[in-house]
Amino acid sequence: MTKSELIAHIAERNPHLYQRDVERIVSTIFDEIAAALSRGDRVELRGFGAFSVKKRDARLGRNPRTGESVDVSEKCVPYFKTGKQLRDLLNADSE
User: Fold this and answer.
1) Is 35 within a domain?
2) Any idea of the CA torsion for 33, 36, 40, 43, to the nearest 10 degrees?
3) Which of 29, 37, 42, 73 has the fewest Cβ atoms within 10 angstroms?
4) Residue 10, domain member (yes or no)
5) Is the pTM of this model over 0.85?
6) Cβ(35)–Cβ(41) under 8 Å?
7) In a domain? residue 95
């Protein structure tokens, strides 16, 4: 599902809201999650999951085309861990 599909789906389920207002709400939520992660904070949505930032140390990588060694600097990457309710929902079919 893309962001625009999410906005359309929420607007469809809430006819009392204008689509531009739903778009503003969704964008604000995503912007706040991104801002919190950029500050190094953790964002937890109960039942859905938690977003956090993990630090990857500098390492020596390899260029797949040439096989040449390449220095890869340290970096931070976003990480998502699903919540128990979401995991249970996804695995309900296998039970």
Assistant:
1) yes
2) -50
3) 73
4) yes
5) no
6) no
7) no
